[in-house]
Amino acid sequence: MLSAGVHAACEDIVDDKHDADRNLPAETRPNEHHKSIPMPILIRAETPADNAVIEQLTAAAFQNAPHTNHTEQFIVHALRRAGQLSVSLVGQDGNQIVGHVAISPVSLTCGMTGWYGLGPISVSPERQGQGIGTQLMQSALAELRCLGGAGCVVLGDPAYYERFGFSAQPGLVLPGVPAEYFQAILFSGNWPVGNVSYHDAFDAAE
Ligand SMILES: CC(C)(COP(=O)(O)OP(=O)(O)OC[C@H]1O[C@@H](n2cnc3c(N)ncnc32)[C@H](O)[C@@H]1OP(=O)(O)O)[C@@H](O)C(=O)NCCC(=O)NCCS
Q1: CA within 20 to 30 Å of 20's CA: 40, 77, 118, 172, which one?
Q2: Whole-number Å distance between alpha carbons of 124 and 99
Q3: Where do the domains of the chain lie?
């Protein structure tokens, strides 16, 4: 988990950005092309009171998603128990939690440190396509930069993650996965070369 100080600083950046966005003319606000969300929702760090809702939300989001074992809610829980939720943000609209994103450390065979994996990311089925996933992605990546992360990998649809700056890197491999579905973004330093491993929590099945 982030230290309280870093977390607070990062939240300030995220909040400042949202405050600044609210002051923009409506036609120039980020996410305005998602016509059904006139204002950004609140993006904040998870608290223990959110755990059950995050679990339900994650299960619901992935219920009809392709390429899933329907274990994502167990993965989030196992990451939390293992103290590996480096970033865990919820999207809150009014009193309702409508989205969640997790980031956890990954290991690289080349020994480079400071690398993380983004996911699972979930938006309530009835709220998908309204820009909430975009806000969660941008906030999570901003917080990871704030944390000092060197870079981040993601496994998923390249068409979705490319828009946030991810790209497939020939030297970064998740064994057993088609190369185009495994992408990365570099924040600092040089690109690593090697195989990537997620935490054992990604094997959680209950
Ligand atoms: C993927 C997900 C997090 C995106 O959140 P969202 O709030 O629906 O996304 P946004 O509204 O910010 O962005 C919508 C855009 O992303 C695209 N998009 C959404 N899901 C996509 C996917 N799985 N693959 C490719 N593009 C996708 C939409 O077509 C839309 O494109 P447009 O802006 O060009 O119209 C959400 O749809 C979700 O929870 N899906 C089920 C769980 C899942 O698959 N998670 C990702 C794997 S870890």
Answers
A1: 118
A2: 6
A3: 4-203
